[in-house]
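Aim 2, interim progress: modelling of the flavin-adenine dinucleotide-bound target.
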Amino acid sequence: MGIKIFEDLRREIVDRNLCNLCGACLAVCTANNVNALTIHENRPQYNETTPQIQKCLECGICYLICGQIPELNEVIEAKYGAKPPLGSYKYLTIARTTDLTIQEKAQDGGIVTSILKYLLEKNFVDGVIVNQSIEDWNSVPKLITSSEELVQTAGTRYTAIPAVQELGNYRKLNLENPRLAFVGTPCQVQTIRKMQALQVRPGIFVKYLIGLFCMENFDYRTLMKEKLQNELKINLNEIKKLNIKKNFFITLKNGEQIEIPLNELKHLVRENCHYCTDFTNIYADISVGGIGAPQGYSTVLIRTEEGGQLFTNLLLERRIEEFTAEPNNVTQTKAKILSLIKKLGQTKYENGQKTKSRLNKNGDDR
Ligand SMILES: Cc1cc2nc3c(=O)[nH]c(=O)nc-3n(C[C@H](O)[C@H](O)[C@H](O)COP(=O)(O)OP(=O)(O)OC[C@H]3O[C@@H](n4cnc5c(N)ncnc54)[C@H](O)[C@@H]3O)c2cc1C
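Predicted structure of the complex, ligand included:
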């Protein structure tokens, strides 16, 4: 069998509505200066302004690194000890930023923004790829090089964008070997580990992977425009914060809170999320979520040596602080969180496996 290329990816993944919309296929194509691909209506496709035959090198990298293609799964599972439901981790902690400006904007404990700020300020990286909020609660992936811009990227947008694609823009930095940090959902982080397993650009430039816990994600058009704006008549510009805990919570700038049962949004969850088995972002250096943590704190899983060193440095510089209470309370809270994320992680793992096996039974030709 010959090398599988983007045409195969289109047939096996994109046309079956299984694409994660992570943008990794575009990232490797841009990094190699080929630019054969583009994204149209949330789907990667050949760039029709440049005929595919001339452009695509048929190298097959986009196929191999796709999060929905299992080819490299065993390689990265072995390297990162990715045993379900939580993968490998050194320890769990509960922490928050000490920076009041970040606290104000952050989704939970502001740990992610504090880490990225530290990395830029200490010149440990040349740029970080984040999800930047634009008007009407839409967002775009952005390569940021100055810590002042970071605060505006704090907070969670529950809508998928091709963040990994932005890695391909490392060329803008004009550096031969740029050092980058990336923050993203499990499907995004996983593709970067696959690039690193193959030792290809731009994955090899990523020095730190900060992973977000993620149960599911949505499309901007269906969630924000059709559901919130058109059906529920919510002015998107009046929204201060969105949060998924037991239900979907919308906090308006005037302080009013609207609660939508998650069941009402189930049909809007992106199709690819039903195939995902990773809740806690098992391939990250540090994984961060809000689940189980006291208000204003984050739940943090330290996974790799690099992640552990980084987190310790932030603690030493008092940029972040761990949750303190009666020692017994801290231990109990951590034990409760661990059991909760194990339970949710296991549920997501089993559901993802079930959906995958249904797909296989129904004639998966991969
Ligand atoms: C789609 C989605 C679903 C999630 N589901 C859960 C969940 O079920 N349980 C749970 O405990 N936590 C979940 N999280 C993580 C949680 O919402 C927070 O992102 C996390 O706790 C970090 O909080 P923080 O205050 O440290 O981050 P902050 O300091 O506020 O920084 C947030 C970072 O997230 C990035 N970001 C924002 N939106 C997106 C996006 N759509 N895609 C990629 N990056 C983004 C921003 O660039 C920013 O760097 C989810 C996050 C996302 C994006």
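The chain has two domains: 6-217+269-361, 221-265. The chain has eleven helices and 13 strands.
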